[in-house]
Amino acid sequence: MLNYDIVVVGGGPAGLAAAIEAKKNGADHIVVIDREYELGGILQQCIHNGFGLHIFKEELTGPEYAERFIDELKEMNIEYKLDTMVLHINKDKQLSVINTVDGFLKIQAKAIILAMGCRERTRGAIAIPGSRPVGVMTAGTAQRFINMEGYMVGKKVVILGSGDIGLIMARRLTLEGAKVMAVAELMPFSSGLTRNIVQCLEDYNIPLLLSHTVIDIKGKERVESVVISKVDENRKPIPGTEIEYECDTLLLSVGLIPENELSKSAGIKLAQVTGGPIVNESMETTVEGIFACGNVVHVHDLVDWVTEESKKAGKNAARFIKKEIKPSKEIVKTIPGEGISYIVPHIIRSVNLEETVDLFMRVKNVYKNAKLVVKADEEIIKEIKKNYMAPGEMEQLKIPSSLFKEKQISEISVVVIKDGE
Amino acid sequence: MDTRELVCIICPIGCRMTVVKDDYVSLGYKVTGNTCNRGEAYAVKEMTNPTRVIPTTVKIKNAQLNRLPVKTNAPVPKGLIFECMNIINKVEVEAPVRLGDIIIENILGTGIDVVATKTMEKI
Ligand SMILES: Cc1cc2nc3c(=O)[nH]c(=O)nc-3n(C[C@H](O)[C@H](O)[C@H](O)COP(=O)(O)OP(=O)(O)OC[C@H]3O[C@@H](n4cnc5c(N)ncnc54)[C@H](O)[C@@H]3O)c2cc1C
Ligand code: SF4
User: Fold this and answer.
1) Of A97, A205, A210, A251, which has the most beta carbons under 10 Å away?
2) Which CATH number do you get for residue A358?
């Protein structure tokens, strides 16, 4: 059995930032494990610019953003194992790991940081009728094929789902000479960032069909066409609105799900809405000494927030080893109120807080001229005006820790209030 | 009349702006709907000379993968994007390459270089 102070599972931006921060906070014997042949996670295939606007105040591409952290990790002499898969974790913080060099390994850790990222929903998860020809794939798979392997996926493409990856791929395919016929979105709004709609669709006159979905895929061996129909407010296709688009490829960009098989094996409780572990103020899961950060906890749209959240996890894992994290029965729950779908962290133990506690959340709908109202029990403690909020753009709130010292609070809730209400 | 509806992409608020040609104001355009000055500057740029950074890839030999990610190190005029792509797609480099290495100098005489956005070792 190998022994480490901290094992970080996943070498994407979350794992990298967590490992670096853990070392800066005094943890020594750290290893980062990733099943890929290089560090950087999903960023290595996101070759477009727009990463790091908040942290570095410049627009980097995914690989550039990753390389800054990879260089820092190497300079700090933090150990990492590539081409290595973590198969199982138990609640006593033992990991079962396999690779072709060492074979099967057992590792005992004092603390574990989960940073496995997320995976894409596939067609199975959203059940489109029709045949199953070649040419249907997720947008992320296409991104990897084109950007890393240099393999073009099709000439005439329809994209289902207007999440950021779908939008980015619409532009990428267009630049590489394909014709993107349309992007169809089931909801009446896009879940992608506005800047991506402008730069990726409007720039190239690609139609965005809101409240539309694919109801049929035709073709025997290869996709030959897809049928798109308008949907009503209950998201049911409206008969008579069908339009058939000739195409050879259908890309699915229908959402991401946190990758939590390992979390389940360790007996960690998952939150329903996010699909990721329930975490406290220290980014610790429901199993003591196992921390989590990045897309494995909740899907982020900006990598900058992944880095910020992961630094917190890394620092607190280091504090845990030094026994500076205090278990406490006195917990404050965070409650998503009207208009909010979830809040991370789910639990706050005020004894462990630094100056502020950061709440990350998503709203359920598009709101213009509204405000986020934060309540401690029933008392309003903060109101933040927002010109524009959308489910595709994560909101962040800072609450001063002093609040919890002043009085006993049992829950913090956030609601959206529209102007004039 | 020269009027256009634009969404500002400078920050996530995404203000919806209306831009009207107006020779009486110093910028040459009257912008409404923006919340801050950066929006106005973006709108005028969009009307006069819209530019974009091009992130793409070139072929690479002797590396772990066969594509190297690259970008233009400054935004190029939108009208030149496809011409630039044609040039970039003809290039093939050989590993090793360092992040920031110039892959194509002064593309189309714009004074802008195409640079590597990733370090790729020789295998
Ligand atoms: C296909 C796709 C495209 C995306 N495109 C964009 C984009 O264009 N712009 C944007 O801002 N965000 C994008 N995102 C979101 C992006 O993932 C996050 O911003 C950020 O990369 C998340 O970082 P992470 O470290 O949490 O996860 P990841 O970057 O996914 O890293 C997780 C790492 O864990 C490793 N891993 C997982 N399980 C195991 C295991 N059992 N054993 C060993 N290693 C394991 C994986 O190999 C991976 O390297 C995309 C996400 C996906 C899935
Ligand atoms: S005008 Fe200003 S506030 Fe509005 S989107 Fe542009 S940069 Fe943001």
Assistant:
1) A251
2) 2.60.40
What are the tokens at A2? 């190998």
Nearest CB among B13, B54, B64 relative to A388 is that of B13
Q: pLDDT tens, A297-327?
A: 999 988 999 999 999 999 999 999 999 998 8
Taking the CA of residue B69 and the nearest CA in chain A, the distance in Å comes to 6
Instruction: Supply the ipTM of this predicted assembly.
Output: 0.88
Residue count of chain B: 123
Which residue has the CA at smallest separation from atom 13 of ligand 1? A301
Looking at ligand 1, which residue's alpha carbon is closest to its atom 27?
Answer: A117
Which ligand has the minimum distance to the alpha carbon of residue A310?
Answer: 1
Q: What is the pLDDT of residue B1?
A: 55
The CATH number linked to A139 is: 3.50.50.60
Dist. CA A248–CA A218, nearest whole Å: 10
B43: contact with A, CB 8 A cutoff: no
Helix (H, G, I), strand (E, B), or coil: what is residue A155?
coil
pLDDT per residue as tens digits for the range B73-98: 999 999 999 999 999 999 999 999 99
Say yes or no: A266 and A355 in one domain: no
Same domain (yes/no): A209, A288: no
Nearest residue (by CA) to ligand 2, atom 6, is B39
Statement to judge: residues A281 and A395 lie in one domain: no
Which residue, A278, A263, A241, is CA-closest to A113?
A263
Of the listed ligands, the closest to the CA of B40 is 2
Q: Which DSSP state fits A146?
A: I
d(CA B100, CA A45): 18
Looking at residue A233, what is its pLDDT? Answer: 92
Domains of chain B as residue ranges with CATH: 3-48 (no CATH), 55-116 (3.10.530.10)
Instruction: Say whether residue B36 is in contact with chain A using an 8 A CB cutoff.
Output: no
Final residue before a domain boundary, out of A238, A254, A270? A254
Domain count for chain A: 3
HEC secondary structure over A135-191: CEEEHHHHHHHHHHHCCCCCCEEEEECCCHHHHHHHHHHHHCCCEEEEEEECCCCCC
Contact A268/A290 with Cβ under 8 angstroms?
Answer: yes
Residues A13 and A29 in one domain: yes
Choosing from A211, A233, A254, the residue where a domain stops is A254
- Whole-number mean pLDDT of chain A? 93
**Residue A372 and residue A312 share a domain:** no
Q: Are residues A260 and A111 in the same domain?
A: yes
- Is pTM, for the whole model, over 0.90? yes
- pLDDT digit string, tens, across residues B39-76: 999 999 999 889 999 999 999 999 999 999 999 999 99
